Amino acid sequence: MIAVVLLSVALIAGMCALAYILAVYALPFVLGVQAARFAYATGSGLIGAGLVGLLVGATAYGLLLFAFASLHSPILRLIMALVFAVPAAIAGYALVHGVTREAVPSEVWRQVFCIIGGSFVGVSALLRLAASSTRPQT
């Protein structure tokens, strides 16, 4: 019985970590999912659609990272950062709203938690983008 409870806690923690990662990388993830859906609808099969989605998501993240690192204008860098961070903040808001829908009875406090969670995920996405673009090349 104790093993089942511990396994449940570990699985819930893993799902929360996965949901957080997917929220941070919301834009490349959604682009990859949409490309996979399009590939599947055109007859590529499950494996082909999965490969297309993975390739498109990785390419989208790489292009965003390259564009952010190569731009020198602060305004253009801010625009690229917002293109990456705003979908992440929206996904973080939706994630917290889904988790707290039944747990928090007050609508005001639920909105407060959702805004804090969305802001946290958006700032985390900005920090990951900035950290990835400033790594020294080896």
Describe the structure.
The protein is mostly helical and 138 residues long. Helices cover 86% and strands 0% of the residues. It has 5 helices and no strands. Helix 1 packs antiparallel against helix 4, helix 2 (26-41) runs antiparallel to helix 3 (45-70) and helix 3 (45-70) packs across helix 5. The chain is globular, with a radius of gyration of 18 Å. The model has no long low-confidence stretch (mean pLDDT 87).
Model regions low in confidence, pLDDT < 50 over at least 5 residues: none
Main sheet overview: none
Number of strands: 0
Counted by DSSP, the helix tally is 5
Mean pLDDT: 87
In percent, how helical is the residue content?
A: over 70%
Q: Cα-atom Rg, whole angstroms?
A: 18 Å
